[in-house]
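Handoff note, outgoing to incoming analyst
You'll be picking up this chain. Sequence as last confirmed:
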Amino acid sequence: MNTRRQCSQWMTILEVWIFMVTVQCQGEPLLVVLEEDVEINCYFESADSDFLIIWKGGNLEPLTHRFDESVIKKDDRRISTIGTNGRTTRLQITNTTFKDGGSYTCHKLYLVSGEPETCQWLINVQDVPQIVDVSTVWEDEIASAECCSKSTDTMHTASFLWTIGSKLLWEKTRSTNNVISEQISSSCSNVSFVAKRRHHDQTLKCLVKNELNAFDTVQMKVLYPATVRWVPQHPSLDILVADSNGNVNITCTSDGNPFPDVLIQRLNIEENNQWVNLPTNGTILKEDNMIQTCLFPFNLGNQRNATLRCFASRCIRPCTQDESFLIRSD
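Most recent structure output, in case you need it:
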């Protein structure tokens, strides 16, 4: 009996299973992430017995699987399975490496009668991109980053998409492709932009645009000098009035990245108007929108008034200090 057989022509499909990608017979190249598993299925019209399956592909030795062997045959990271009806065969490659990339064939040879049948496809292995050379930058300076991804697809340059927060980054992006070896190429993309606080002090994301959409992220850090301010009890007031015991609470706000250490200084008139640090410790009331609010207790003691100021210390770059304010007894 001479039965016409041929592989059903299926387009490549990707199914989102747990670390599993599946392709049916032949079609578009199959893309898989490095170290994930890939599963390849081949379908035949005939269910005749007495056949031999030969898997070829990658840089590995051919894997043969006879119909009269066990249903499952393992060879290191490759697992061959013959369906119970004889119409299907499956090859699973676990923990893929770059060596697994390349052309694959599934040969079905009939030992009694029938023409040999073959399925063919291409597997490309791509690693997860990595963002490197990220610069911690001061505000209004140029920030830059580079993102690279390796693949066994040596014919095409990967297409990258950069975002920061939820916004696209288009400024000064470029991509390059370098062939590392006969089988592996590396595509890289560079991005640069003028850093602004709050706008760029967010998550930077680099995505390789394809059906996998693999990406990497880093947290950008935009530095800027600190500013400290005294907060009056009322906008129209420029003095603080202590209670009958000479006690008063002082509120200071500060910003900056990194945050400065905030303290209270007193003007010492007896020592040539020198500013002296006070030992009082502040309590952080809140941090909101990169602004820190601190509360400091102060007591006038036996004096009727004092000139104080909120002061920022341990500044990486010169801080903007606040003007002085007056405290007097009630």
